[in-house]
Specification:
- This protein has 312 residues and is mainly alpha-helical.
- The chain has one domain (5-190, 269-310).
- 74% of the residues lie in helices and 2% in strands.
- The longest helix is centred in the last third of the chain and has 60 residues, at 228-287.
- The model is unreliable at 1-28 and 306-312 (pLDDT under 50).
């Protein structure tokens, strides 16, 4: 099931009534209930997952090669995306567990530091960064006086995760294009005899039309009908066209399905990019002390943020 952006708006509205009280205190500092962050993450992403080839694949199943290199690459890219989404959900849930655990602030910060360590190796590998790239960030996390400030120091790691997803979505789009190109070539090969027949049929129709016009111009009161041979040619042409019509419609439908498939992959990719930017901004606002969870997922400031990232 694909998550609608309406879910984000509806869930945010619900939080307006849920956040009138503060449930956690860190070193005397009041902060919002972090559990709402995990709830909102699940509301935002829901059961969203990168689809293998979208619903359009039903119409082009016979054009896909399950063992083809392009299809295998696409499936691999999709698995990476779904793994990243699972990681976002997992991180959000574990963050809540840490915030609600019994223990001192230093113990919670240590647990959060360990949580970040679970993701850093994969990020540095995926983004081709030095192994110690986030070492200073992790040390800053440990030096904070409370968990909220520690979360704030982890923003470079969160931003790196969004960048990784952005890069992986680029790969998904590229591999989807390769799948479509391969399928389009199979379609062309399969229907080549049909396509080859179109030029002769068009030439035949053109010739018959010219003959018909000539007959009309020369018709007299005594000559009202087309010559028998011409009538038979017209009948034969109509018979052939009727036989080919079903195949021609099938060819056109599959061409349109391939075009829709390309558009669908890009639309889903754009939607997921948007979702992740919403999530990253919410994480940032939570970490900087924005009080109401309903304000964490404010969509109004997203366009500017997306434009800023697009220029990077």
């Amino acid at each position: 099931m694909k998550t609608s952006l309406l879910v984000v708006t509806a869930a945010s509205a619900l939080f307006l009534s849920a956040c009138s009280s503060v449930e956690k205190k860190f070193s005397g500092e009041q902060i919002p209930n972090i559990s709402h962050f995990s709830e909102q993450t699940n509301a935002l992403l829901g059961e969203f997952s990168a689809t293998a080839l979208s619903t359009e694949a039903d119409q082009i199943g016979d054009l896909l090669n399950a063992k083809g290199a392009a299809e295998r690459q696409y499936r691999d890219n999709v698995r990476v995306i779904n793994g990243l989404l699972a990681g976002v959900r997992d991180y959000s849930a574990k963050l809540v567990n840490i915030a609600e655990m019994r223990g001192s602030e230093s113990e919670k910060i240590a647990a959060y530091h360990a949580l970040l360590h679970e993701y850093v190796p994969g990020l540095t590998t995926a983004l081709k960064l030095p192994e110690d790239h986030f070492q200073a960030t992790l040390q800053d996390v440990l030096r904070q006086e409370n968990l909220r400030k520690a979360i704030r120091q982890a923003e470079p790691i969160v931003e790196a995760a969004v960048t990784q997803l952005h890069n992986e979505l680029n790969l998904v789009e590229q591999s989807a294009d390769a799948v479509v190109a391969s399928a389009r070539q199979r379609l062309q090969n399969h229907f080549q005899p049909l396509l080859d027949s179109q030029a002769p049929l068009y030439a035949e129709k053109t010739d018959l039309l010219k003959q018909y016009v000539k007959v009309l111009e020369q018709r007299s009161a005594q000559t009202q009908a087309l010559p028998g041979g011409t009538r038979q040619r017209i009948q034969d042409l109509l018979t052939v066209q009727a036989l080919l019509e079903k195949d021609w419609q099938h060819y056109q439908q599959q061409r349109e399905a391939l075009a829709r498939l390309t558009n669908t992959v890009r639309e889903e990719s754009a939607r997921l990019r948007y979702f992740m930017h919403v999530w990253a901004r919410a994480h940032q606002k939570m970490a900087t002390g924005v009080y109401l969870p309903a304000e964490w997922f404010d969509l109004n400031d997203l366009p500017g943020q997306l434009l800023k990232r697009a220029r990077l």
